[in-house]
Amino acid sequence: QLELETKDLVQKDKDHLWHAMYRYNEKASPTIATRGEGAWFFDTNGDKYMDGVSGLWCLNLGHGRKEIADAAYEQMVNLSYFPLTMSHVPAIELSAKISELLQGSYTTFFSNSGSEANETAFKIARQYHIQNGNPGKFKFISRYRAYHGSTLGAMSATAQANRRMKYDPAAPGFLHVPPPYSYRSPFGEDVPDSDRVAAELIDQVINWEGADSVAGVIMEPFISGGGVIIPSKEYLRRVAEICKKHDVLLIIDEVVSGFGRTGKMFGFMHSEGVQPDIVTMAKGLTSGYLPLGATAVSSKIYAKFKENGTHNHLRHISTYGGHPASCAVALKNIEIIENERIVDRVAELSESILSELYDLIALDKVGEVRGVGFLYGIELVEDKKSKAPASEELMGSIIAACKKKGLIIGRNGDTVPGYNNVLIIAPPLSSTEDDLRFVVETVKTVLSDLC
Ligand code: PMP
């Protein structure tokens, strides 16, 4: 009976469900999840998997937190929907909480997703400069390899090869600079401080373009989907200085890194003294339980809108943005993160358990292991000397072998042609110590076999 039902589901899936980047089962049958438990999920075959990438790095507290489900339920029966053209309590409380967590004075516009949070940031940045008497400042700078979302503006800031090749022309006004990627420095092997050079290049690009034409710089504190790139702490500090000098807004995309993923509440907090002008959030904001995006702007920006009496006229609206149930879920999620000291736990367990992944560097085909908090990338190469990227075949067989052993891991996708060679490990922040050991042991076993 179960087999028949599964067969029927597989057929319907094949005929009717359009998957996003159907990466794990291109040829085989899809994995159809039916139930989750903590960091694990079960499929229609009754097989059990540890989710080593937290869904799409969003399911930070794992499956089945009843308190979160209850918060959604209670909110839905109390006030089922309400628009933010007026106001409601969970959105007010959440905006104040976000400001407190960002350790500054921030005002938040809510949307539905990370892409939309970034679109909102671009619109606010451009309007800010108009309000400020600089209507010519409209360009945005982002980094190659970065992913900022799938809507047209966010995708234009995204500088990953395949996405761009499929959808160009991008929106005008989006410029790209090399990332602080010391393992493959675009400035040459013999430049010892390539992160510094990468930061200075932003200064130069702003000068070349004309500071009077640049609205903002958008970056993740740590490039996640683009291959887990972890710059020195000084890099972001220097970028912040450069932005300030040119009156260019620093937009930090915390969609992946926010809410504890890197062992700090926000990724930018690893670089002391950096206070972004705009912070965008999604994923970990609700731990994936309901959709919600947030664009928090510093008081400097919001004051400009208020001063000119235009804060009510952003000309940007989202029907479901700041949905009461999503805000209630986000508040409960944050309460759990705080009560259970999730952020400190991530820092501690990263150090004591996940850091064992660094041992893999001893293998012939492991070029570099990079990690921060519960975000690790293992860059695979044909050989350490040439650094030629590992083949698609090897990448695919590693992911398949892990899955066979009950572990789902990810990889960077479509980043640079031929360079989709970074395995990504980002387990739920609530994973038990045993779960984390299972991740490390499985990856070690599989890589020792195949690399
Ligand atoms: N920014 C980053 C850094 C992301 O990783 C993502 C999603 N992977 C987004 C933005 C877009 O978020 P969403 O899919 O919710 O639109």
TrEMBL record:
Cell inner membrane listed as a keyword: no
Entry keywords, A to Z: Aminotransferase, Pyridoxal phosphate, Transferase
GO molecular function, one term: transaminase activity
SUPFAM superfamilies: PLP-dependent transferases
Family matches, as NCBIfam families: PRK07678.1
Family: Belongs to the class-III pyridoxal-phosphate-dependent aminotransferase family.
Protein name per Swiss-Prot or TrEMBL: Aminotransferase
